Amino acid sequence: MINFLLTCDTYTLAVTALLIIVVFYWVFEVHYFARTLWCATMCRIMKKYVHILDTTSYSSACLTTDVDFLLFHMNNSRYLREVDFARTEFYTRTGLWAAIREKGGLPVQGGTSIRYRKFIRTFSLYSISSRIIYWDRDSIYMEHRFVSRGDDFVNAIVHCRQRVINCDVEVLMGELLAKRAKESPGDLQEAPRIKPECPLEIHHWIQANLVSSANLRNGN
Hints:
This protein is an alpha+beta fold.
């Protein structure tokens, strides 16, 4: 391969590079991976670490690649795709990803619930606020809010269950809370950072998922 490249002229190299790019875009969703990498890199370089119970904000815009066939608002499926990028920022800035990997764990999506309130128009700006609202031994429950720029209206709200494989989440979160308290003891003078109570909607959502799992196990 190296010998081939050394013997090629500029035109051949350009065509070869173009074909490689086309193949990569055909086989992989290059834009998705590139944007995820960019998000994680910018968080490490430009943004500071935050407390595990803090809220992060990810800014974005509805472009022509995000719209549905009506062309004037965001496609429903794009909301969950954008949540991936917002979650990447949260995991990076809070150190949650590194903490999970240090324990040999791996987070996977165990469930998602989304409620649409008002569509996001094409070319409009918005932000996604992300925070942890509850956790149990197996999973972390997160909330993501799509907030319009200007009027701060919540266009959609997403609840996600992040199942953490090979890791006790109660132990993990306890260590992260203790680590933060040790690093910034002055924060404890304002308000203790402890595990939040399970929100009512999350409680009912968990119960609904349990019923769904039971039905599938019974062949329903």
